[in-house]
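Handoff note, outgoing to incoming analyst
You'll be picking up this chain. Sequence as last confirmed:
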Amino acid sequence: MRKLIVLVAAASALLVASCNTVAGVGKDVSAAGHAVTQTADDAKH
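Most recent structure output, in case you need it:
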């Protein structure tokens, strides 16, 4: 039973950490997209 609790706790920690990582990557990609869009708009004018 103790091993099961440890396993569930470890899996939960990994899930939470990966969610934060994926969210951070999404924000970085979004920021890069906005920068490219802004540069393209500036080049038009």
